[in-house]
Amino acid sequence: MTDVEQQLTDHLRRQAADVVPRYDLEAVEQGVRPDEYLYCPPGRRPLTGLLVGAAAAALVGVAVFATLIRDDQATTVITPAIDTPRPVETISPPVDTSVPETVTDRQPMAAFLGSWTSIDTDSSLQTMDIGGAGDGSAEMTVRDAAAGVCSDSSSTMTGTGRLDDNGDLVIATPTLTCDDGSEPLSLTPPIEEQLRNLTFARDPQSDSLTDTLGLIWRRPGAHEPSAEGATSGAMWPQSSLDEVREAQELADAADPAYTWQIDPQLSSAGEEWWGHLRDQGGSEIVERFLRDGLGWEEFLFNPYQPAEGAGKRDGTIGGIVYLRCAPGETNPLYPTAPVGHKEAPGAERCAPTIDEFRYEAVQFYLSQLVQQDRTGVWVVTDWMFTAPFTQTDPQVVETAATARLQDFLAARIAGEGAEGYVEVGVVGGSLEEVPLLYATTTGARFERSEIERVSEPLWPGGDMTFAVRLFADGGETVVEQQISVSSGRLFHDANGTTENGGSIAVPYVIFDGDVTLSAADPWEMSWRFALALTLGDQGEERVELVADSLPVGCARGPALSGASELARSIQSDPDLQVTDPVGDIVGGVEVLAMDITLTAGASVCEVTGGPGRGDLVQGSRMRLYLIDLPEGSATRTLAISVVASEARFEAVLQAAEPIIDSIEFHTG
Amino acid sequence: MAVGDLRGTSEQRSDVAFGEFYSRELDGQVRRATLILGSNEIANDVVHDAFVAVYRRWDSLDEPGPYLNVAVLNGCHGIHRRRSRDLRLLPRLLDRDTASAGESLDDVLARLPFNQRAAVVLRYYDGRTTDEIALALNCAPGSVGPWIDRALAKMRKALR
Asked: Quick check: bond before A611 cis, omega within 30?
């Protein structure tokens, strides 16, 4: 175990020791969360109604928060810290609700901590973070991309709050500043007076906050109950188990009034149901429910709104979410269909129904309640309208990403400060920065740059790809790299770097730094194999590296102690035809090299062992290098194999030569 | 450790009362979920919901241990996905996405993708094998090593 692994193990054990499990068997058996009754004992009045009624009536129209994220404000980047809710005190054991409450019992500060979002009627998304200050108070930060009192520039509001006697969080003197340094607009009464004693009341049932401006704040991703009346149902089209049984009998008798509820593709093993639901016209039970049950004319399966219970098990497919599309309209923010958008085909034709950002959404289960096989009838169960689903404005994404890329490229030209902007995708290695960060392969510094968006934005988050070009040697040398933006983060596929059109070898640091190598496109690290550079997706042609190779051959055995022993073991395997090992040099170290094929009739066989490793199959050949790594390496023995079909073997071996030649070993 | 076998348990449902099962599994499940989620409170909720799901199916589950494990991991994954979706909704750019020197292990763990974080917790806290982790995370065994390698690389950088 390396130092890092040991530190990680110790760290996790320490962290685990501090964990406090919340024991509440009774709540489990009642099927409720402990806090559902912990915070709302019988007879307690809800807080939100009173506050909304009084405060909202008094303060409605104060548009401090009600601001728009507008296209022309795209360079304003929202940076709320909502990644991970802050650790909060665990409430355990459950409170005996028969005991008179204290303020802390009813609404502990912990219930307010963490991240909150509020969706305004104009669809702007505002974020708020509340963190504990350690002395019973809390620090609040609210961020707006385009605040009205700041002439539509971004604003930040901060303040310190405490719980009052009602258990509400009161921020006595919030301070709002415009991020561009300007003064907030003069209001009557003044902004600070309007904000004074800003109060948040928490509704434990919905885990939401209502502030004195009438805004409702929810946890990120939480459902927002619809304002409409009937928003959920138990079952469709039947309404009881007896009716479902009867439907099953009639469907079994080929009654066309019920056979449409049979859907073998939903019943199939594996993930076929997913594509079946995703493709419009796929599942008749779903189509009929949405059209006839809900009255929706057009709709879209939404894989981006994970719901509770998502997945398939026990004859039930849970957490299915569909969005309602405005009939006959094109999505105003995503009018074209990006090539390769497999997850949400048709999103470009699905215009939101609430406004240009927000969709009505429904969540439901599909269940086979009577007969769980390919001929069992399906019913919709536990359906409910959920919070509107919001698509991101791709123009905002593009402007923000472009600004970030401009900073990145300027730093590269300046020769410093470009680290950390872009995450580099390297499987099995640890390339930490974009290749050719500050100079060309000849060391020439970059002189200028350009950015071009090369893909259509991907619904719903506006993910897109840019080509960035850096010019050196008076424009004679051009380094081009593709950088993608997703969820606000920049990514670069390390294989996507070219210089004057030629691929650049990507360095890989593997086996805890014991081994480095480099490989250029079209070689790329494969997810399919543990540590292999492959040509093509299937991995039939590959360079594979296995550290401390496990049992050798088709028969499993104990781990072997070195290259020579490994070579002898391979030679002794009756399923393998092996050439005599010959000496060679890789990375300045003496190695044993041999060619291996399967004997006639031998089955597929793992030559170098270990889960996930590639197989040697009939018709393929392997060049195997066995290496005892220098003393001081964490890895003792390294097996490097080049695998290809007999017909392609020499060509692949030649193509792999630069990779083998680039291998270096590092000790200590 | 009181966490059920990720691959399945030979103990049959009928051999044990739910209360006993709950008492035996709660501690380990909450600790593991907390390490994966970084929040004791949310982990308690996720594990609680998973126990509710098990309780509702108690009579039909032959092997509640593996079912509970999957339910907890799915719940953790759901929380991560929800966080990711929330981030996607916000057109923001992170300044501190990648590990930098001097950060704590907690900082790095908090930013790991779900699969990487779950894999390192299952390996270095639970002591699970690659095959067991792959089974628990419903992935190919070959994916586990790279996930752990990448997570360790980030930690190594942070600990410099």
From this structure: no
pLDDT given at position A313: 66
Instruction: Tell me which residue has tokens 């850096």.
Output: A470
Instruction: Provide the 3-class DSSP secondary structure of residue B102.
Output: coil
pLDDT digits (tens, 9 = 90+) for A143-163: 776 666 776 667 788 999 888
Structure-token match 């929330």, residue found: B86
CA-to-CA distance for B121 and B72, rounded, in angstroms? Answer: 14
Is the pLDDT reported for residue A446 higher than 90?
A: yes
Measure B153 CA to nearest chain A CA, in Å.
6
With a threshold of 0.95, does the pTM exceed it? no
Contact A489 B93 (CB under 8 A): yes
Asked whether B50 and B40 are in contact (CB, 8 A), the reply is: no
Q: Which helix (H) or strand (E) holds A135?
A: none
**pLDDT of A563-613, one tens digit each?**
888 888 788 878 788 999 999 998 888 899 999 888 887 765 554 443 334
Which of A52, A35, A32, A44 minimizes the C-alpha distance to A209? A52
A499 vs chain B: nearest CA distance in angstroms? 26
DSSP string, A322-341: EEEEBTT---SS--S--TT-
Which of A2, A397, A529 is closest, CB to CB, to B91? A397
Residue A74 neighbours by CB under 8 Å, 6+ apart: A393, A395, A396, A398, A399, A400, B91
ipTM surpassing 0.85: no
What distance in Å separates the CA atoms of residue B43 and residue B109, rounded to the nearest whole number? 15
3-state class of A593 per DSSP? strand
Is-contact B149 B115, C-beta < 8 A? no
Q: Which residues contact A286 (CB under 8 A, 6 or more apart)?
A: A277, A320, A322, A366, A380
Distance in angstroms (rounded) separating the CA atoms of residues A109 and A116:
14
Going from the C-alpha of A486 to that of each of A333, A388, A461, the distances in angstroms are 17, 22, 7
Neighbours of A192 (CB within 10 A): 13
- What number of CA atoms fall less than 13 Å from residue A513's CA on the CB side? 12
Contact A16/B31, CB-based, under 8 Å?
Answer: yes
Contacts of the segment A579-588: beta carbons below 8 A, 24+ positions apart: A581/A626, A584/A625, A586/A625, A586/A627, A586/A640, A586/A660, A586/A663, A587/A515, A587/A627, A587/A663, A587/A664, A587/A665, A588/A664, A588/A665
- Look at residues A486, A502, A504, A487 and name the one whose alpha carbon lies nearest to residue A431: A504
Q: Where are the beta strands (DSSP E) in A122-207?
A: 125-132, 138-147, 153-163, 169-171, 175-178, 198-203
Assign A56 a pLDDT band (cuts: 50, 70, 90).
very low
Chain A residue at shortest CA distance from B39: A87
| More confidently predicted of A498 and A315 | A498
The CA angle A60-A63-A66, to the nearest 5 degrees, is 105
